[in-house]
Amino acid sequence: MSAEPDGPEDRLRRFATIWSRAVFPVTSTSSTRPEFEELLLPLARQLSGALRARSFDAEAGRTVGAALVEAHCTDPEALSRTLDCVDAYLVLYCGEDGDREDLRARSGRLQHAMAAGFAQALRMRTLAEQETVARAALEAQGVVAQALHATEARFRAVFEGAAIGIGIADLEGNVLQVNGALRRMFGLSEQSMRGRNVKEWVHPDDAPQTWRLYDELVLGEREHYHLEKAFYRPDGTVLWTNLTVSLLRDADGDPQYQLALMEDTTERRLLNLRLRYEATHDALTGLPNRTFFFERLEKALGAGEGQRFGLCYLDLDGFKTVNDSLGHAAGDRLLVEVADRLQACATASTEMVARLGGDEFVALTTGPDTERTVDELAARIMNALLAPISVDGRELTVRGSIGIVEGPAGERSAAEVLRSADITMYRAKSAGGNRFELADPESDARAITRHGLTTALPTALDRGEFFIEYQPLVHLGDGSVRGAEALVRWLHPQHGVLSPDRFIPLAEHTGLIVPLGRWVLEQSVLQARAWRDLHGGAEALGPLRINVNLSPCQLTHPGLVQDTVEILERTGMSPDALCLEVTESALIGADDDLLKPLRRLAEMGVDIALDDFGTGYSNLANLRRLPVSVLKLDRSFTQSMQRFPADPVDLKIVEGIVSLAHSLDLAVTVEGVETGAQAEQLRILGCDTAQGWYYARPGPPDRLHDLALVDATG
């Protein structure tokens, strides 16, 4: 079945047509251009398949590069035109509906693979030619003495027709013969080259062993050597070659001539340098990228004794706002300007600046005195960001947070250094930004521990690592146990039992607080049901109320009311057996939408307690609009009552709060009761219930049942 007029096959053939028109003029072939196009069509199909394959395979690119050499496209211009054609048209004609950015990246990697395959195939072909030419040269030199003209003619044909440069010199280095390929490589006539001496072609980039190997060869101590060597052309440009020099001996085995075979690798070298640059530099800013930076950092960390390093890790403050408000194009222009300023800060040869990605940059300094130079480098960076940056007619103020790590080489890996710098940078950002901080091992350890806990949280609930302890709520009037507050704990496999202040903030930050809070609520209500079943017919005990804390994240979760109702119905507990504690700070300035779920729960009969009352500086008049039935006084109000005599000011404050609460039909619970005198004073002041170590520490549920049973039976 034929393809549609503009189907994939048609687009593929158009790409092959463009490719053949570009490359055919520089190809040594007897084929016509249409025949050459048919030769390129399957190669184009291989490139198209590799471009759109599910997983990228560079082998297709290497195969196509090798096939070009097989098709006699050995001129460096043929490779250059091929890469230009693939870069400009492969994605356009063969990309179809794929992700353009991903396809462009794949196209670049295919070009790299094609260049590698081309170079390898050309090398293998050259080596084969070298062997043929060497054999021919040996035969030719041997038959010169025998005057065998037929062999001489054959040698001349190979000598002049070879695609690689060939030159013959005597043992003093005087050039005797050169072929056309070598003359074209140097841009010199045969007469100009014949008068030269090999030793004139010294280049500053010569490898240290270059001329030692040459001396050994002309002395007859070695038969050949191979290396990469640069030569100057008459116009001052540099010719890079793969050079093989062999020793030619006479019939008696004595050294007589030297034979040089040269492959022009200039274009390939420039291509490799370009690809290397693109692989190690940021496309937007031109700064070294993460790959290049890690190479330099690892080199600095592997320096010898007495060497040190200093690293500044910079993150721009508020860069997301620029992207969100002005667009990514404006954000990119801002990053380019910042990169230019940072580059100007690297004033010494031992300093470098790189972009890790996004708005994150790093500056590295090395040497024996980085304790001083890294501080100076950080100060230069901060000063460089002071002047506003103009973007689209707007003057933008740019600030940054910097984390500094400095120390001796050889003690830490590159990953450890960068992690410490990252942690320190975020410490500077959390302190307000626009500043730099020095790395601190203790702070790093705490941050690493927090990160470890954060990553372990999602599976800890599934593994059953959380458990609940209960602290009794005691009536101050008769000393009876009226209920308990549920306090969640984490039995961590490495860190042991963790209190809520170690993991609740992390759970709130990750959003895990919602499923964790739901689990605590369900387990607590189930425990209350178990207590009720254990009490049986002992009516004197009355219902034990369970208090459960709610975080601000849970308050805003749409499933709060439904989850609470379902748990109460499933366990068969009445709403008045549950009290939900909400911190005062979470309700300061709360609007009706936030209060609506609490009002619904309060209307059902669930008690709402205002926890940590007195720490949020709320207006006491706001209590009238909040759906609360209990005030829990913060322990800071009652700590002075542990001393005798109690602070009269604190007594007046507590007395006033209790009086106001009772006038609003609110019960008052006090936390942190630790002495009998404190409990008696609070009873006199009119507080209703209390909890604290004076009565019992948080513990397992059976302990609370025993306390309640003792109170009920006298």
TrEMBL record:
Domain PAC positions: 225-277
SMART domains attached to this UniProt entry: EAL (SM00052), GGDEF (SM00267), PAC (SM00086), PAS (SM00091)
Pfam families in the cross-refs: EAL, GGDEF, PAS_4
Gene3D superfamilies: 3.30.70.270, EAL domain (3.20.20.450), PAS domain (3.30.450.20)
Domain GGDEF: from-to ranges: 307-441
Domain PAS: 151-221
Signal peptide: none
EAL domain location: 450-712
Protein name in UniProt: EAL domain-containing protein
Organism: Streptomyces edwardsiae
Lineage: Bacteria, Bacillati, Actinomycetota, Actinomycetes, Kitasatosporales
